[in-house]
Design goal:
The chain is an alpha/beta fold. The protein contains ten helices and 17 strands. Helix 1 packs across helix 10. The longest helix has 23 residues. The two termini are 29 Å apart.
Length: 360
């Protein structure tokens, strides 16, 4: 166990030193692949994704996937240290992607190594994917899609590795981003000519702010909606004929993204265009052995406000990993070494207790 944890932390430090923003993961993917190959785990690459299958894989048995992502966002402003320097403190790993999602990546690798040569009543698969932060088509969408590897796309259960403090998210909100466009008529401001698109947009934004969705999720509460960007005008003396704005919506399982779009369009004069209708909300299946195991072990459960690869898998899943979500996408990101060590132990305990639940 000590060796697994030390190897994991050393691997994480190597990952931090390699820039790996979404769509630019080739170098870090190659390094992780070579490391897993050196440990005898027989990985396969699918683009910049890495998949490893436990020994004795049997297609007649059910499959549990350990899933985490190897890409990062761009460094935020405000870093007081090099985002690609993990530091040399034995108790902490700094750097971009250390918490989101490097801690889960290396912890899941350690757990997969632990069980690689052990006999289980189900198959165990490791899935490390790219493009998660940008919802790219070449990451989880590929692996869990019709052209993905059978061991992943046909899996029965998934543990999504994200920084949750090893609490288990049993539901998560989806994501719907709308681009709003109000169109007016330009004119000279001094003569009060034209139709001000900015005012039209402001009226619609107020309507969006005050809108109440009728259905409330028992798991997640109300649908969350925020207008996050607005842009209009070319000069101080010209009435703007166009005003664009962006709406960030976090759906619950009570609505499809199409239903939300249609409901909001009915109260707006601005044209609302969705960037993507596929980022749906997710919830662990009723009666799932994943739920039984979390209950048996006394693992705290919650509903997550953030999205992950869960929505792209379409599988019975929980989201659980080391680190703290509040550190993600922020300057001076870090993860504690003990968080990784404890997560390895907890993942192993979970899988050991998952035996009985899958056989009931």
């Amino acid at each position: 166990m000590n060796t697994l944890c030390l190897d994991s932390i050393a691997l994480l430090r190597r990952m931090i030193r390699i820039p790996s923003e979404s769509f630019h993961e080739e170098e870090v993917s190659e390094m992780i692949y070579d490391t897993l190959q050196g440990w005898g785990l027989a990985p396969e690459r699918y683009g910049n994704n890495i998949v490893a299958v436990g020994k004795g894989f049997d297609s007649s048995r059910k499959t549990l996937v350990l899933d985490a992502h190897i890409d990062t966002v761009a460094p935020s402003e405000g870093y007081t240290r090099d985002p690609y320097d993990p530091g040399d403190d034995e108790n902490i790993v700094y750097g971009l992607g250390s918490n989101d999602d490097g801690g889960s990546v290396v912890a899941m690798i350690a757990v997969f190594r632990h069980f690689h040569n052990k006999s289980l009543p189900f198959n165990l698969v490791l899935s490390l994917n790219c493009e998660e932060e940008r919802s790219g088509p070449g990451g989880a969408c590929l692996l869990y899609g019709p052209d993905g590897p059978t061991e992943v796309k046909d899996a029965d259960w998934v543990i999504i590795g994200e920084p949750t403090g090893m609490k288990a998210a049993t539901s998560e909100r989806g994501l719907l981003v709308l681009d709003g466009l109000a169109e007016g008529v330009s004119g000279h401001a001094a003569r009060n000519e034209g139709v001000n698109a900015l005012y039209l947009a402001m009226e619609d934004i107020q309507a969006l702010r005050s809108h109440i969705f009728g259905k409330v999720s028992p798991l997640m509460g109300d649908v969350s909606l925020n207008v996050t960007q607005i842009n209009a005008g070319t000069a101080h003396n010209v009435i703007p004929d166009r005003c664009s704005f962006v709406v960030d919506i976090r759906p619950t399982e009570q609505y499809s993204n199409e239903e939300i779009l249609n409901e909001l369009q009915s109260i707006c004069r601005s044209r609302l265009t969705p960037r993507n209708l596929k980022n749906r909300s997710s919830a662990t299946f009723t009666g799932s052995p994943l739920l039984k195991t979390t209950s048996r072990l006394g693992i705290e459960t919650f509903s997550s406000p953030t999205t992950s690869n869960w929505m792209r898998t379409g599988k019975d899943a929980i989201k659980m990993g080391p680190g703290d979500s509040s550190r993600s996408h922020k300057a001076d990101e870090y993860i504690l070494c003990r968080e990784i060590e404890q997560s390895v132990e907890k993942y192993i305990t979970f899988i050991e207790n998952f035996y009985g639940d899958t056989l009931e």
